[in-house]
């Protein structure tokens, strides 16, 4: 399991203060990407080129776990609760 630390967690905590009722991972991911420097963005996965579906990597799965700890809410990805 990849441990997420530093500025990414700080930004995730900040986002949870105003987007605590959001249940879609893509929305949270967009907010994070807007606030993080390029060096931190490289850890995020990209959409599949053909299907445009999201394939989560371990880094993002751990962020989703952290989100649940901060807000108590599950996030959905591709319409599926994670």
Description:
Helix 1 packs across helix 4. With 82 residues, the protein is mainly α. The chain is built from four helices and two strands, in the order ααααββ. 50% of the residues lie in helices and 5% in strands. The mean pLDDT is 88. A two-stranded antiparallel ribbon has the order 1-2. The two termini are 16 Å apart.
The total count of helices amounts to: 4
Radius of gyration: 12 Å
Derived structural class: mainly alpha
Based on CA inertia axes, which overall geometry fits? Answer: globular
Low-confidence stretches: none
Largest sheet: 2 strands, antiparallel
Number of strands: 2
DSSP helix fraction: 40-55%
Mean of the pLDDT scores? 88
Q: What is the beta-strand fraction?
A: under 5%
Listing every helix as H and every strand as E from the N terminus to the C terminus, the arrangement reads: HHHHEE
- Cα distance, first to last residue? 16 Å
Strand order of the largest sheet: 1-2
SSE order and pairing:
Elements (H helix, E strand, L loop, with lengths): L6 H12 L6 H11 L2 H4 L16 H14 L4 E2 L2 E2 L1
Antiparallel strand pairs: 1-2
Helix pairs in contact: 1-2, 1-4
């Amino acid at each position: 399991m990849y441990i997420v630390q530093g500025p990414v967690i700080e930004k995730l905590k900040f986002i949870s203060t105003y987007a605590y009722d959001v249940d879609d991972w893509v929305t949270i991911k967009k907010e994070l990407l807007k606030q993080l420097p390029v060096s931190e963005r490289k850890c995020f996965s990209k959409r599949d080129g053909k299907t445009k579906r999201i394939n989560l990597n371990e880094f993002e799965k751990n962020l989703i776990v952290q989100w649940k700890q901060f807000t108590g809410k599950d996030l959905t990805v591709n319409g599926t609760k994670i």
